[in-house]
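Researcher: First entry.
Model:
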Amino acid sequence: MNFRKPKGTKDILPKDIYKWHYAEQVIRDVTALYNFSEVRTPTFEYTELFKRGVGTDTDIVGKEMYTFDDKSGDSLTLRPEGTAPVMRAFVENSMLNDAPLHKLYYITNMFRYERPQAGRYREHTQFGGEILGSDSFYTDVELILLAKEVYNRCGVNNFKVKINSIGKPDERNAYVAKLRDYLKDNLAALSDDSKRRFETNALRILDSKNPGDRTITDSAPKILDHLGTESRSRFDKVVNELTKLSVNLEVDFRLVRGLDYYTDTTFEFVSEDLGSQDALGGGGRYDGLIEQLGGKPCPGVGFGSGLERVLIVAEKNGFTFGEPNKPVIYFISLNDAARDKAFELIQALRKNNIACETDMLNRSFKAQMRDANRLGVKYVYILGEDELNKGKGQLKNMSDSSQSEVEFDKIAEAIS
């Protein structure tokens, strides 16, 4: 049997992994600048967490989760999104008692059963951030700026931020009633998905990609026109602050996001380089989620972004991720005794943080030189019988082919 990776998954091979390392380091650097701390949660959670936190009428819970019963009969689900597990950890570990404000980030794998396409995998890597404890509009702005800075440092500049507000729950409920009244007259013309959503989650009809649905909803009531004074003022402050900071914005009445826990601000980063599935990442506020999961009332805002999509756009833009890590020096051994000595010297250099490599296949001198060239090392150190007798090896500088004798205990000094 020829084994293959499961559909919708991806192998990240050594020739590409340095790009991931680069992006992950950018995330760690930027989150440090913004004073975010990393949080790691389990790969699976009790299924009820996502049903309650994300919403039973969402596509994630209804169609996309990998759910199974363990040997105890408990229903568990592989993590399909990042916010609910972080909130669970926040509540369970009483983090609000430690400080009034928390800024958290994660880089982790997610699992969703959906149709694989460019940048969308059934197992993918996501990074995200959460600010918990403040309802200030500045927290919305800061989270958007953090994501923008990560994208920029990864060579992704050609994007815009779509933004909307879905208000407080009571405002949204009143708006949805008006939306359903409008849609009733066009119900027969809606797509099957939107007909289903009309009964379960009518707000999501605005987000439909079906051309017929979009034509119908073009003239639908706009939620921004039905917000209370406080919610509208808050949204205007977010937009004004981002505009002042030169963020490329578009107010989009269709941006309602797919998760039930959002309140007020919703936003999404989009790039034309991704084609029809143009979202780089997105998020919004969820001021009632922590209380919904059993915690004390605590406002919050968060976002998540697929790392695969960031890399796709960066590569389309011709971004250079630096170079893969490579050894500084390669030890060529001409006999078994030399090989023993080389192994000893290599361990001493590695303790001084000098990356080394040597031949493990007992190859010829020419083959070892070819290997050194393939790896792109700066130096080669040659050891044979004469060198062992002298206590000195031949150090070759690969950039200019110059060569000199260097004592065993002077190698680090010679290549520094």
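Researcher: Second entry.
Model:
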Amino acid sequence: MAEINRAVKGTNDILPSDVYKWQFVENKMLETAALFGFSEIRVPVFEHTEVFKRSVGDTTDVVQKEMYTFDDKGGRSITLRPELTAGVVRSVLENGLTNGPLPLKVCYIGGCYRYEKPQAGRLREFHQFGVECVGAAAPSADAEVIALAKQVLDNIGIQKVSLEINSIGCPECRKKYQEALKEYFRKNIDTLCATCRDRLERNPMRILDCKSPVCKGLCENAPVIIDYLCEDCENHFKEVKKHLDSAEIKYTVNPKIVRGLDYYTRTVFEFVSGDIGAQSTVCGGGRYDGLIAQMGGQPTASLGFAMGIERLMMVLEAQKTELPKRAGCDLYIAAMGNNASLKATALCNDLRTDGFKVQTDICNKGLKAQMKYADKIGAGFTLVLGDNELESNKANLKNMQTGELCEVTLDNLADQLFSAINKNALENLADSIIKE
């Protein structure tokens, strides 16, 4: 029975005291994506399992070890999404979105699910913001998507992140590279972990992504893909770097980046922070030119990225970034007696219709308790209603920050509250300028 009152391992509640921070970050993400022409798309939390096997790759840890897969009541194999790109591509194909103007630019925010050992920055339920750009083959598209990721990070206040880029070439490049990897790792096959010994013949590039310290050590001197790029892929990568230079976006070429999913081709990139320990990658992405064809569509060049929101929140906290305070209560109306309570209900309804955040007592508290509650919820102003106020149709509007009282009439309370809020905001602004 004790489990009923505990969240499932690897999941977190986002409480009202924190959710406003998430809303700020998510709104900034969508607003920034819109500047680049990206529109939001929403896809199901679960898909047919084959969607992920065909896209993510059945040799990846995600598919082999981490997916939440089950048979539904109709006997179909269903999987909670471990990432969103595959579901977005499925939706693009099913709804014929590639028949419209290209490039197609979409973005998303949503939860993902992987069965992993929970640790800081790595949960079993986590949330991602990401974008997909479908139908763009030019190197300038790679640079634009990277620029979007950078501007998102800048706009939400993330500092001290570094951009690392690489090219993992096309399938033709990788054939030669994989042979070179096999030859290198065969010499150390007894040292590899059991999982990587299995990967050696099936997909040796996955060894480069292994978390085992021993395998990581062996990878230090392994061949790098950048030395095996064909002429087209090498030229593409050079042009990507030129566009990044033109946009004055600083980067480091890291030939060790391969990304963890099989659908990537050519450009791959990561934004890395030094403020959250081992889980340092806050954004990762790249090209997946073969994925749409792999999932049954026509060959269509595509690319995108995803960033983990939990990790971004960790970075913001570690860097002590000042986020806008959550919007509090504009006015709390304290009522004494049944008639005053009825009037408070009417005033609240009218003020809320005008866009004000207003609360009143719904627990039959005494006046003292109501005022304490107003203080705890951070009400900007309070108004006390009793028999005298109802009879005179006037009441005192109290500024909870300064204690200043201002007499208002109840008939046009909205205009007077608006003026009081603006006056208070201007005074606060003036005070902050003087302090600076």
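Model: Note on the second entry: The longest strand covers residues 104-113.
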